[in-house]
Amino acid sequence: MAAHRLLLVYTGGTIGMIQPPGQAYWVPFNFNVIREQLPELSRFSCEIDWFAPGPPLDSSDLDPQHWIELAQIISNRYTQYDSFVILHGTDTMAFTASALSFLLSGIQKPVILTGSQLPIGEIRNDARENLVTAIEIASTCPWPLREVCIYFDYRLIRGNRAHKKSVQQFDAFESSNFPVLAEAGTRINWFKDYFLAENTISEFKPFFEMTTQIAVLKFFPGIRQDYIQQVLTIPGLQGVILESFGAGNLPIRTWLFDELSKAIQNGILVLNITQCEEGQIEPGKYATSKTLQEIGVISGGDMTFEAATTKLMYICAKTTEYSERKNFLLKNLCGEITIER
Ligand code: ASP
Prior knowledge:
single chain, 19% strand, alpha/beta, 341 residues, 28% helix, 9 helices, binds aspartic acid, four-stranded parallel beta sheet, 2 domains, Rossmann fold
């Protein structure tokens, strides 16, 4: 049987950073740093090729154009490789993973993002285990893993459910509102019942566009009308995410509902997600969310902020039809939202 072929894509991040001589801060460095620190990569039975799309970047420097580039790198090499591992900074890893889950719609192979909280060149680091096990998972998973995931600190998480929760801990990511897909200990425990099912999307149809004409309104008690008005009237705005309280609640103010209603009538998608780490929007549970439902605010269910923003960027690029956009937002495209039956 032909050996498994894996493509390792290096975008940057702490994993490959070094301290310039005499400095206390870290900067991205080329991937030779990783190769030198991990000669045992050659001991894997799979064939590993390396690819660096450009100079390594801190992930806070990445934008939707980089996500599109990553989607193209994978699509262009899709038949050549059996799996893909992307080395990436942790700061925006959950955004990239979410964006790729949409752009690589229907992918039938594993795409695993990983990185670390400490550089691979440090004596004590989490880089080595994260990278080695991400490769092990991508190349030996005994069941078809047809999705974009993050492997970090012994856990495999669906990419569009991931959220960076810690700046310091090695346990940097949580899987929001969804169980982990695998756990690594002395052996790897697979929770295959949670893998994306084959019939979710059976055909690989990558897409290479994203719209950035979106905005976010994170609510806080005392938020002002002029602030909301300014945001909702940004020229060219196509969608706005409301980060609301609890189960999707906002202050009951006539002016607020009027502003939102006007925006919706102007064809702006208004998507409601919760500020809470756990749980979901429950439209109509309270009087306030009932009004939102009546004026046409779309429920984002239990989506993470990262999944909601990238899904909105993707949907707005995919179609210009308001009703089609709305249907896409309400649908579970690739495991990003729980749809109650
Ligand atoms: N600032 C770094 C990045 O996201 C943090 C990390 O990699 O952990 O690139």
